[in-house]
Amino acid sequence: MHTPHSHHPVPTPEQLQQQLADAGLRATRQRLLILESLLVLPGHPTAEQVHQRVTGQLSSVSLGTVYKTLDSFVVAGLTRRVASAEGSRRRYDADCTEHHHLVCADTQEIIDYCDPKLDELIRGFFADKGLPGFQPHSFSLHVTGSRVVDLPTAESAQQA
Ligand SMILES: [Zn+2]
């Protein structure tokens, strides 16, 4: 079965270069390939998955380089690290807008979930209740469960 994330469009080299330039990073071939892979791979890829795709085009790139580059992307705001309940493997999210995650405990698939109503509820809750000694910047729910067959995801619903 295909994941609903497999429709990511391939960004043009100009778009990739612009993204790196905006983030203040020099557009090396390695960085361009790693960024492209991050954007093109479905869902929330691991560094290993990014590495595998990159080496298909540039075999000399090591996994360590991919980790370091992805971490520099995180610092530069190009990607986010996904908080993983299992903590097994780091996963990366090319979508830096605020959203939530549904995590399938059976397949470890991470499904993006967006709902402005939910964001409103969470913001309202903490605005009313206050968070003493803490200033929240963003909220991200991590919902663990089991995927039910034919359950429409946020993305496939958007496509319809
Ligand atoms: Zn996500």
UniProtKB/TrEMBL annotation:
Cofactor: Zn(2+)
Record-linked InterPro entries: FUR, Fur_C, WH-like_DNA-bd_sf, WH_DNA-bd_sf
Record's cofactor remark: Binds 1 zinc ion per subunit.
Gene Ontology terms: biological process: negative regulation of DNA-templated transcription; regulation of secondary metabolite biosynthetic process
Location of the region described as Disordered in the Swiss-Prot/TrEMBL record: 1-21
SUPFAM superfamilies per the UniProt record, alphabetical: Winged helix' DNA-binding domain
Transmembrane segment boundaries: none
Amino acids binding Zn(2+): C104
Protein name: Transcriptional repressor
Organism: Hymenobacter lapidiphilus
